[in-house]
Structure formats: C-alpha cells, structure tokens
What does this fold into?
Amino acid sequence: MSASIEDVAKLANVSISTVSRVINRRKLVNEETCQRVEAAIRQLRYRPNAFARGLMLRKSGIVGLVLPDLHGEFYSEIIRGASLQAREMRHNLLLSSALPGDDAESWLAAFSQHGLIDGLAVMVSDTMASGIGPTLAELHLPIVVLDDEIEGVEHDAVIIDQRQGALAMMRHLVDDCRAKRVIFVGGLETNIDTQARFKAYCDVLKKAGLKAHNEDQYHLDYTYDSAYRLAIQRASAWAGQHHYVFAANDEMAAGIIAGAIATNVSVPHDLGVVGFDDTRVARMTSPLLTTVRVPMSRMGATAIDLLCQRIAEPDRSPAKVALPAELVVRESCGCGMNGRTKD
Amino acid sequence: MSASIEDVAKLANVSISTVSRVINRRKLVNEETCQRVEAAIRQLRYRPNAFARGLMLRKSGIVGLVLPDLHGEFYSEIIRGASLQAREMRHNLLLSSALPGDDAESWLAAFSQHGLIDGLAVMVSDTMASGIGPTLAELHLPIVVLDDEIEGVEHDAVIIDQRQGALAMMRHLVDDCRAKRVIFVGGLETNIDTQARFKAYCDVLKKAGLKAHNEDQYHLDYTYDSAYRLAIQRASAWAGQHHYVFAANDEMAAGIIAGAIATNVSVPHDLGVVGFDDTRVARMTSPLLTTVRVPMSRMGATAIDLLCQRIAEPDRSPAKVALPAELVVRESCGCGMNGRTKD
DNA sequence: TTGTACGCGTTATCAG
DNA sequence: CTGATAACGCGTACAA
It folds into this structure.
C-alpha cells in the first residue's frame, strides 16, 4: 500500500489540509511547516492519488487523440507533434485509432468512462464517417477536429489549406512546366484529402483548357505498392512530352516513379511525377520529388494546443486555425526550378 | 452536470447498489429490475465516473507506453502494434516519449500521479539511460521492457533476437556473397541496437579471417541524409569486387545506395549495400534492399499483451519473450538469391 | 496560519 | 434478490 495524504500529515505533525495546501498552493503556508511537510512527502515517497484528485478537480490532465489509422509517416508525425505539445502543456496523451468499420459503439468504448479525458482531438478524413458529429456532441467534451470540420458539434479545428497547396501544384505543372496532360492518382474516393486534391486538379485543368479525361483518373489506396503496380501497367502509355502524374501522396508518387523507371520510362524526361505531403520519402526518390509540404507535426501540435486552451477556458468562441500547404519544387517535375518555392 | 449513479437509482426506483450490480454483475439481479435500470441509464445517458470507479477498483484501465523517440517508421509501427493490442485487451494507451536529455525527474512527471496507469511498457535503447531501473522500481507498477533488459527492476521483457539476425546477415555476406570487405555504418555508439549489430559484424568478420578495419566503421545518427552524405564522400573509395556496406537500419542503407549511385558507383555491382529492420523503405530502393526483418508492430503488441497479462495476474514469474529477426534477401546484395530466407 | 468536517461517485460488505 | 452504509483519498469551505 502506498502512502496517502493522511500518512504524510501524521508524519509531519500537521493536518491533511496543510499537506494539501503545500502541494497545491504553497504560499498559504508557513515556510517552516512547509519544509517539514515536504520532508515527509519525500520520506514516504508520497504521490497524490490520481482518482481522488480527479474526483475533486473534475480534471484528469489527459487529452485524447483519435486518428483514422496509425500506419505510415503521415500519422506518425501528427502523433509526434501532438505528443510533444501535450507534454509542453503538461497533459498526458491518450492515443487511439478508429479502425475502418468501427461503429460509434466501439468508438465510444474508449471514452465510455466519464471524466477520463478532459478533451478530444479527432481526425476523421473519410466522408463515410462524417455522421459522428452528434456522437461527439454527446461526450460534452472540448473537441478539436483535425483537417476537417464536422457538423453537429461545436468544436475548434486545425485545417490544412490543401486546396491552395493542390492549386499551387497544378498551376506549377500547367504554367511553369507547360503540362499538356496530367494523370491523377488518388486514394479512396471517400477520402477528404483526395477529394480536395482532385477538385483542384479538375479546376486548374479546366481553366487551362485541358481535358480531365476519365481514363486519367485513378483511385488507389495511398500505398507505394499499388502505385508501383499501376505504373508498371500504364507508364509507357502515359509517357510523352509534358505529361505528368499528380499523386495524392508521396508514397504513391515514389511507387509511380519506380514503376515508370522499371518499364524504361525516364522520370522526369518522359513523364513528370509529383506528390503530396512532403514526407521523408520525398527526399529518398531519384529524381527528388516535387511535392506539397503539409505541416503534419505542426498540425498535431496545434490541435493539442487548441484543445488545452479550450480546456482552460471553455467559453471562448470556437477557433479555426488554418495551416499553409506549400509547394516544394525539386527534380521530379523536370522544370529545372529546383529549390524554388511558390505559393 | 452529468447524471450520477444516484440519479439512475432514483429514476428506476431502486438503490444505488442495484444499479451498480446491473452495470458490473448483471446476473445477481432480477431480470425485470434490470430492464428498468437499463432504461434509466439510457434515458439519463449515464456513464460511470472514471475517478470514483478507479478509487474503488484501484485500476484505471490505462497502460503507458514510453518510447525514446517518436520519429520514423520504426517507432510508428511499435505504436501501431501496441495500440491495436491495447484495444484488444480493452485497455487505453497513454503515449509518451523520453526525450534525450530528460532526467528521471521530468521522466516521472507523466506518472507522478499515483494510480493513473496500471502498468508501463518502456523502451530505452540507449546505454546512457540504463540507470533508470531503480526509478522504474519506485513506480511499483507492472513493467515491460522492449528490446532490452534493465537492472534493478523486476519486469517482463520482449526482445528481438538481433544478434541472430545480424549474424545471419553477416554470414550471408561472407558465405554466400563472398564478401572480402564489409563497411559498418551504425547509429550512435551508445545505442543498444547498433551495439548488438556491430558485435555480430566483428564476430563474423573475425571468424572469417577478415579484418574489421577501424576506418571501415562509422557511427552516424540513423538518418538517410547523413548516410547519403557519407556515401557521396566515400562510395568510390569503398567500391570494389565483393565489397559491402552493412548499415544498421534501412534508412541509412537507402541513403548509402542513393549516395553511391550519385557518385557513379553501381549498386550492387560495384558495392553491395544491406540494411536492417525491413521497414517500408526497404521496398522503395532500387535495387530492392536486402535486410533483416524486425517484427516491430508485433513487438509493440506483445509488450502490451504481456503487460495486461501481468496486470491481471501480478504474481506470475517474469516472462521474457524473444521475437526472431529474419534475413530477407532481395537485390542490393547482388547475390541473385532473391526471395530466399535464411536463418 | 492551521485544523475539522463534508462531499465527490463508486464498489464492497453485510444485513435484511 | 435488494438496500443501507462504510470505505477509497483528496480539496475546500468554514471555524478557530
């Protein structure tokens, strides 16, 4: 059995209220008594009981982070940013992922205990699951939504300006690289990131007077392998002066590049390939990948920051923080403008 | 204010004990009463209070996971495995990282509350920090150590048989590829993984009658970039028939390959390059990377599994689970034995 | 400046 | 099968 506040009080010859004061608001207590209490605390290795404390304070010091998946560097970086910021704000981070196919039931499982977490940062990223608003609302918890906004709950949000990023990329291809044909390789059609990027693709193509052919639009699963296989089949057909592939993430772009090269299609000479996110992969391809930088870790950190702010001040009006997504020109678009950053 | 057990009791016209029984051990209560109580629970959207519950049960249902860093796929996969298993075991996962330079003080910060977590999974991976045993012991918590064993605490452990993996790789280079010279590129000298891999490197070289030259041993920081820069400088000097680079992780191996190719050293023809871990990078290099598969996500899952088992049964004797590390032969060693798996 | 006593919401014990 | 009541450990009015 570990020591309780009462044990400390006895050893220091004071009442438990004094001990409590020493722990929480030292100023209110005589310096000498204070020392005695602290000595007792150390001697007994006393640590306050989290439950008893939470019961009074109605705060656990824990914030939850729920992601749609935990695979890959994209989520990994969000977690890293969130974790660091949580520590900064002196909170603990409870991590969970909503697996595909999870109903609201098993969703709530982790949060079915009342009071366990002080707030929740949640990323959905699939339009299939957009109905969780009311479910979240029933939690009666400060909510921060990442990379989206959700109907049916009041919440803060940190969003990436994907549209601007995707527009910048498409304009770069069309204006600077004089693209004549652009193939789009996205993730699932229900994925909101893919949707935003696809829309920008269509818009710019249209404005440039280019056709967005149906046969130039693919929806894969964001993985290197599926993109590689696709490129093996199609790359030679895609090849041509000022022909480009716009992949919705870096991993697929890398897969396309490898698949193209494997079928003797030279990148970027015969086919330009660009990605999205600027994960580490983007610096590991040859040629180096032209992509759009998404500040993933900053997104995670900002989410936790907003969350803790709201926990401290619940009545603030909802905040939406927008983070920029920035074009990063490297080699795989073949325009020779390496290192240049457009916005 | 959210509903308490008392509110439910009143609404259902029973005592709080009955409500409690309905929640925890339904069998002991009359079916009809049961229904009435459950109706009340739904009507009031009652959720048990985590603190009051924990105060009685002395269990939070939370397990902690502390990693030395959160960067990169290695840790990301451990987290993923751990998270999935935690959910499987109906526990929540509290994630934290011990930043370099953290003293035991700020270490404990996250766990300074007594009772918040039911057990702790820790990975240290640097010999600099091996003194945390006693610190962990003072937590009086079930402890599982990942990829290491620690003096001064009783704990379960899940370890990767790195030595076998590294030996298999080195033997493959020496026996099958007829290596005449092997350059070792590791992480920090204090890193335990690097140490294990280095030792296997030395042992096999020695047994094969080959010299482990000092100038053939490098200690970098596990990143692609530093390995790339090193290769740019050294690759041409390293090149030669049956010359190899054994990198201590896949990212560095990828960096070496890219650096070598950039300086017109052909891989694997002029220089073989092999890695470690079998992260996704290993399938994204060209040539595909020969490496050692480390079951990262399984390690995370096993750790949480052991932890929950011990929480349920605290008096079991300590368990050490060893996971195999398996040689994966692809293209970058140039032996033409692709797909073959040795042990 | 310090101590007393109550209440937070739950489970466990024991008596009906 | 059900209800009353005592813990669990802590924060905080309120009294001294």
In short: Residues 17 and 150 of chain B are 45 Å apart (CA to CA). The radius of gyration of chain B is 26 Å. Chain B touches chain A through 54 residues (CB under 8 Å).
